[in-house]
Amino acid sequence: MTHAIRFHHTGGPEVLVWEEVKVGQPGPGEARVRHRAIGLNYVDTYVRSGLNPASLPSGLGTEAAGIVEAVGPGVTEVEVGARVAYSGGPVGAYSEERVMPADRLIVLPDGISDQQAAAMMLKGMTAQYLLRQTYKVKKGDTILFHAAAGGVGLIACQWAKALGATVIGTVGSDEKAELAKAHGCDFPIVYTRENFVERVREITNGTMVPVVYDSVGKDTFLASLDCLRPLGLMVSFGQSSGAIGPVDLGILAQKGSLYVTRPTLRTYADQRSDLMTMAQDLFDVVLSGAVKIEVNQTNPLRDAAKAHQDLQARKTTGSTILTV
């Protein structure tokens, strides 16, 4: 019998339970995947806590890598035996096996391991749309990226550096500052003792930055606006410190006719053609060596609750995977 991590009511990590589940045969347009590695992402805590609603009882997770074991009628995207990975689609990646929409599966190239794939599909494609689509980072840009030592942050710092940008990043400790710096962050700012607005002003000689990438939310949003130059873009793509809450749009005019966007990977990768293009861009930059995918924490799938505890306690750096 297949096992999975599920929860029957929302709450802290303690609500996660290891239980048996039935996995049926794939229907039309579906494939059954046996997982080898599963990605842990901060958005999983939003679903578990109820911040992002789910129908209960519910599975968890939207990112994994594994082997296709069966395909349903009409499936042309993947074949039995293919190594695949995915990010997105219905929740339920925290499982030994599952049935997935075949059009969400990406065949992995030989140079990408299952562990790398599970650690990079959501985070890496998030970095892709942030740096290559939401705001197209170019040579000579100076950008601010919050949580620079996190999973998305470490990928984004390397990628932005490869694009020729100067990267300013916020981190929570000296250890994380060193880690971010080793991954392309030119100016790590330890926000627990430094005012990041003042540091951005010093680093840029008062010109500030054209874009801020912020997955922190409530604790950084308003100060981040002060880091932008006139007509700058605030990219709010997460809320690890809590929801931002109501904002008077007049403040955008006062601070220099600023722009704000709240993008999601789901929107950018909604069409399979876009999903494939984004994944290929990610694979290319990883295979070239410009971006290294490092798994810094590994937990057995059945210990997902501990992985959630460590993630929310800010004890993790880079990517964490759950192994089957």
UniProtKB/TrEMBL annotation:
User: What keywords were assigned to this record?
Assistant: NADP, Oxidoreductase
In the UniProt record, which is one GO cellular component term? Answer: cytosol
| Oxidoreductase in keyword set | yes
**Enoyl reductase (ER) domain: which residues?**
11-322
Could you confirm whether the keyword NADP appears in this record? yes
One Gene Ontology term of the molecular function aspect: mRNA 3'-UTR AU-rich region binding
The record's section on InterPro entries has: ADH-like_C (IPR013149), ADH-like_N (IPR013154), ER (IPR020843), GroES-like_sf (IPR011032), NAD(P)-bd_dom_sf (IPR036291), QOR-like (IPR047618), Quin_OxRdtase/zeta-crystal_CS (IPR002364)
Q: Which PANTHER family match?
A: QUINONE OXIDOREDUCTASE PIG3-RELATED (PTHR48106), QUINONE OXIDOREDUCTASE-RELATED (PTHR48106:SF13)
NCBIfam families the record matches: PRK10754.1 (NF008024)
The name this protein carries in UniProt is: Quinone oxidoreductase
What species does this protein belong to?
Microvirga brassicacearum
